[in-house]
Amino acid sequence: MSKFILPGTTLSANNVFCIGRNYADHAKELNNPVPSAPIVFLKPNSSLCTQDTPIVLPSVSSDVHHEVELVLAIGKTGKNIKEEDAQDFIHSVGLGIDFTARDIQQKAKEKGHPWSVAKGFDTFAPVSNFIPSQEIDFSNSDIQLSVNGSTRQSGNTSDMLFSIPKLIAYLSTIFTLNEGDLIFTGTPAGVAAIKSGDVLKASLNDSQITLDVQVS
Ligand code: ZN
User: Fold this and answer.
1) In angstroms, what is the span from residue 184 Cα to ligand 1's centroid?
2) What spacing in Å lies between the alpha carbon of 123 and ligand 1's midpoint?
3) Which of 105, 101, 109, 90 is nearest to 168 (CA)?
4) Rounded to an integer, what distance in angstroms lies between the CA atom of residue 51 and that of residue 45?
5) Domains defined along the chain, listed by start
């Protein structure tokens, strides 16, 4: 893809790491067990877009779900990062929506196939402006999503099964984290289908960070 510059920063996006089932209430709503280690998958960086881009519903799915998530942008290279040092590697923070073709994902799960298709369509990863990480209390931030004015998802980062320092430490045991890598940190309960014309508004701590997208 052409370079995707993270809104509000000069960083160009690199890998997009995502965490599955990081809030117990969301794992439960999809009848999934609560994991004993973080569930990791990737989205292609071609799925990234800004909030000015209309979300495109792929014709091969009839059940695309929203998953609002806190997104971390990594600011420097790190491997085997200690939890107590994790904050130093976070450049900035934003909101994102991990759109998921649930019908395609469900079939993939049943067959033991990867989730890349279900998670990877163009415009399936809109992100907000990013703000400096020092401005956010990672252990206690409210995260919300409304669709057409009705609240659908509402959670707090204190309910994460794996805290942000734990996620960074864990991911960096596997991958070398690099500047511009993004980490989608998982979604609270309330995921549901979107349809053409829907207006989605995500917010962190009322309006410390906002992300507004429309489904085309
Ligand atoms: Zn997700």
Assistant:
1) 7
2) 14
3) 90
4) 15
5) 16-214 (3.90.850.10)
How close is the Cα of 36 to the center of ligand 1, in Å?
17
Residue with tokens 């990877």: 120
Which pLDDT does position 52 carry in this prediction? 94
Give how far Cα 199 sits from Cα of 39, 45, 82, 190, Å: 29, 23, 40, 16
Which of 179, 176, 178 lies closest to 79 in space, CA to CA? 176
> What tens digit of pLDDT does each residue of 138-156 get?
999 999 999 999 999 999 9
How close is the Cα of 41 to the center of ligand 1, in Å? Answer: 9
Ligand 1 centroid – CA 70 distance (Å): 10
Instruction: Tell me, in angstroms, the distance from the centre of ligand 1 to residue 82's CA.
Output: 24
Q: Residue 191 has what DSSP assignment?
A: -
Per-residue DSSP letter, 45? G
pLDDT (0 to 100) of residue 1:
52
CA 53 to ligand 1 center in whole angstroms:
20
Q: Which residues of the chain have pLDDT under 70?
A: 1
Please count the residues of the chain. 216
What's this model's pTM, rounded to 2 decimal places? Answer: 0.97
Question: In whole angstroms, what is the distance from residue 177 CA to residue 168 CA?
Answer: 9
What are the structure tokens assigned to 35, written together? Answer: 């994991």
